[in-house]
Structures are given as C-alpha cells and as structure tokens.
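Have a close read of the entry that follows and walk me through the local backbone shapes. See right below:
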Amino acid sequence: MDVLALLNHAANFAAPAFWLALLLPWLGRFLTGKRASAFSRPAQFGLIFLAGLVVLAIGLLLLGQDGKMLTYLALVATAASGQWLIRKG
C-alpha cells in the first residue's frame, strides 16, 4: 500500500467522526436553545472528534473490521452524550 492509499484509508476511517463533530455543535445550539456552553465551538469539535476517533479505533480492535453498525451506534451515542455534557446537560 502506498502513502496516498494509506492517507485515503485514514481519511475515510475518520470521516464519520469528523462530520458528526462538525455538525453537532451547530445542531446543539438549535435543539437546546441559546444556553451558554462550557466550551467554544472549536473546543467542542475537538473533544467530540477525539472521542469519536477513540470509539472508532476501539470498534476496529474489538470487531476486527471497520464499518460495523455497532461501532457507528457507539460513535453516535458517545458524540451525542458528549455534546449533551458539553452543553451542561
């Protein structure tokens, strides 16, 4: 596998966590109102993205392959719970 293929695989592996982390801070503001958050939007993105990558890596290690629905379910649950905690519950 060459370097470009490796980068492509890494980008596709991280894409679900990236898009979820990018959209949740903006959607959270509309769904929970204009309550003040404990963190800025870039910090929220970073925390949710990091948690999402950890969940995806654990899912890959436990299940043996990427893209299992159980892993994506855990990703969404972790990101939503993290966003809820960041928005002060």
User: Anything to note?
Assistant: The chain has three helices and no strands. Residues 13 and 66 are 8 Å apart (CA to CA). The chain has a mean pLDDT of 89. The two ends are 45 Å apart (CA to CA).
